[in-house]
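Example 3.2
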Amino acid sequence: MTGNLSGWARVHTLVHRICEGWALLGGIILGIVVLINAYSIIADLLFGTPFPGDFELTEMGVAIAAFSFLPYCQITGSNVTADLFTMNAGRAAVAAMTLCASVIAVTFAIFMIWRMNAGLHDYLEYEEVTGILSIPIWYGFVPALISLVLLGVASVMSLADIFGIHRRA
């Protein structure tokens, strides 16, 4: 089926699959966080010794997972929308709002990449670690930055969808 696709459509499909895989990886990380928390709660109840640093892993894991879902939500158009504004709007108004949302997503991704990159460099320079497990804080920045780059690419693809670029290529 992909043999008949144009070059742009193949890129779009590839980006969609990468975003999907990245979101699934985020879901796996979130599942691991849940298992660690369940283990910690059970160990605390049964033995009075919870898993040390479980909240540090939860904090980092949930942040990584949340960032990993952003590109998939963008490329599939699954971001939260306010139906209150769109249910009685015409096609042109909905298209304008979709265009505006995609432009905002691209802008947001660029801004966040810039700031997260600065944060990463600060944490690399000052070597800050978590209090109990001594995990370097910068570890969480790398997957977040990858997610933001994917969000930027997915946002550009969303703009291409709006203008029908991949259908003309």
